[in-house]
Amino acid sequence: MQQQKPIVPAAAARSLSCDGEIDAALRHLRSADPLLSPLISRHVRPTFDSTTHPPFLALARSILYQQLAYKAGTSIYTRFVSLCGGENGVVPATVLALTPPQLRQIGVSGRKASYLHDLARKYQNGILSDEGIVDLDDKSLFTMLTMVNGIGSWSVHMFMIFSLHRPDVLPINDLGVRKGVQLLYGLEELPRPSQMEQLCEKWRPYRSVGAWYMWRFAEAKGPPQPVSTSGGGAVTAGSTLQLQNQEEEPQQQQQQFMDPINGILNIGRSFVFMLGTITGIYVSQNYNVPNIKKLMDTGVAMAKDVEERYRKPKKNQDDQLGGE
């Protein structure tokens, strides 16, 4: 059976798991944002274990845990690994060989099965690779990974922080981080994602560590959350997934609220599209207007483009924190 090969990051000097990198991050954050200094003193410092899963395995694991309680996710993940012949056997060829009925027998839904297969196909086709993922810069990596069905911006940010240990990642859509920023700066409302970039700009190039303290701050101000830590505050795989599931419930509520609105918008867009088409046909048949066909075709194309623009966020809305 094909085995996973260990991946050595090309940009290891920037990894938060490198010696002295957390110390450098804390010095910078204390200096750049005095409001963070008391938080840094109050909470245990984050540590990042240099031993991590290969990217393909980590991404597959992320998909499997989507919208599941940690215990349920662990149960399914354990059965999935067993089906692949162990963690070293979780490779694209093995995953592609698993049929939806096989995956369904271990508790993986049809949608998640399609996500796993899409991830594996992009590896098999050479679009993605473990080596390429490790070597890509943050922006390129974000673009490449969000091409995978079932992996949205939030999942990519968590992967970059907790699997690749990238130092300058800001999860602008994470409710925990946004809540922490709201509390830190005394804002009346949760900051919008666009505001998050501006408010946290001073944390560069260590926004990942700043985000870690926002989670701690939000947890301290809210109901106690069972976060698994070890080694002086290291965020383990288990706690990462607990953080993920803490975020999913509000997202699901938001989705339930947005569905009726999206339905109304879809009806409205369909009506405008139909009205424009009928008007164009009527005018073209009853008036001798030069280039009316070209104008009508342009209007139809624009209407389709608007509809497509509204449809595109739907994928990220489903994926962002794992779509089940």
From TrEMBL:
Full protein name: HhH-GPD domain-containing protein
Protein family (similarity comment): Belongs to the alkylbase DNA glycosidase AlkA family.
Top-level taxonomic group: Eukaryota
InterPro entries attached to this UniProt entry: Alkylbase_DNA_Glycosylase/TA, DNA_glycosylase, HhH-GPD_domain, STMP1
CDD domains assigned: ENDO3c
Molecular function per GO: alkylated DNA binding; DNA-3-methyladenine glycosylase activity; DNA-7-methylguanine glycosylase activity
Gene3D superfamilies for the chain: 1.10.1670.40, Hypothetical protein, domain 2 (1.10.340.30)
Pfam families membership: DUF4535, HhH-GPD
Tagged with keyword DNA damage: yes
GO biological process: base-excision repair, AP site formation; DNA alkylation repair
GO cellular component: nucleus; protein-DNA complex
SUPFAM superfamilies in the record: DNA-glycosylase (SSF48150)
Keyword entries, A-Z: DNA damage, DNA repair
HhH-GPD domain segment(s): 64-219
UniProt source species: Rhododendron simsii
